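## retry 2 of 3
previous attempt timed out at serialization; input unchanged, resubmitting
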Amino acid sequence: MRRVAIAAVMILLLHESAFAQSKSGPATVRSDAERKQDAEIDKAYQEAVKRSNLGVHPAKADPWQTVRPADGDNAKH
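## retry succeeded, writing output
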């Protein structure tokens, strides 16, 4: 009897957690002015990204440049 009660409680708890995940919070209603302001902010952000150098990758640096032998020195040591 004890096992049945524990199993029933576990099943109910699983059901409740799944139900809690499916609940959606209160819908946010935004006014036209707020949507327009959001669009202006997004546009300003996109312009700032275009002006920055985020899309340009710098040349790769070689930190071992001074440690490696020259290209012509392929002799095995």
